[in-house]
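quick one before i forget lol
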Amino acid sequence: MRVQKFAAFSDRDTGGNPAGVVLADELPDAEQMQAIACEVGYSETVFATPSADAWTVRYFSPTVEVPFCGHATLALGAALALKNGNGVFPLLLSSGSITVEAESKKNTMTAALQSFPTRSQATNDDVITRALRVFGYTRGDLDQKIPSAFINAGNEHLLLALNSKTRLSAMRYDFDQGLHLMNDLGVVTVMVVYAENEQLFHARNAFAAGGVYEDPATGSSAAAFAGYLRHIQWPCSGEIEIIQGEDIGMRSRIYAKIPKDAGDSIRISGQVRHIR
């Protein structure tokens, strides 16, 4: 079975988050998809099959199936554009329907997805204390302008906002402790962010729940974070950029357009490069 490889949210010809893409006439069984994802070894591999005028899609990390993955969706969009030409492709996921739009021209590919509706929920002191302990931070490291929260745009994430880029770069955690925390809280990643200004953010995403220490670019958390900024009325003029993966040598750039209405879908976009 052919696995195509793309890096989504790349910074021109470098960086981005690699994903495997399998286009098949019929989806393999779950055990086979899980085995392929484990062999590929990327944070996610996406499997898609035609279904009337749409594509039925499933996502697998090296250890578990996940309900949604943003960077793998952009990678899928690039694969579909190369196969069928530029356009908008409806996707059928287990949790609902979204679209991915992709364009390939000359040596450049770009893609954008419309996320699921967003929602957020405040954390409590116990959750914050546990998370800070696992990641080696203190309450003095937190940015009080962006309160910690559970954020969601198809996947549940825990958000920690810091007041220092130096402290963000110092992010470390014990893998087993992080895995226990994420599983106990029911989150896919812990997203740690720093606001350089009102529209530019730096992020790191711990992904022990998926068998990966850190994700270089996370589209689902970017959408959830953008929705949360709207919820707290952050003054970003409807657009933000997130730099992720810089501290692990895989600099990625994620763009989000934020409509005004609470809960509405977020448009997440970026460049995609083909991994030969």
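fyi The CA atoms of residues 110 and 271 lie 4 Å apart.
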